[in-house]
Amino acid sequence: MAALREGPRRRRELRTAIGGISDKVLTESPRRLLAAGLVDRHAHAEAPPRVEYGLTSWGRCPAAGRSSTPTSFSKPRRAVRHTAS
User: Where is the HTH hxlR-type domain (predicted)?
Assistant: First the structure.
């Protein structure tokens, strides 16, 4: 998600921005983010085909990056019990 904060990017641009990412992860990650509503996919009707990925309004929300959902690729937070003293 951090690679998309500057604006929509194509797959090749994502690979360059992230660096060291496998094809499998580069394919699966946007799919999970799309399913979670954090990323939008825009296919341009032109030849050659061009697809761009960008953050949705929910994906740009600061709370989305701190979510404990697996699609955000962040480590899950541990629950902390607060007791009244």
Answer: 1-81
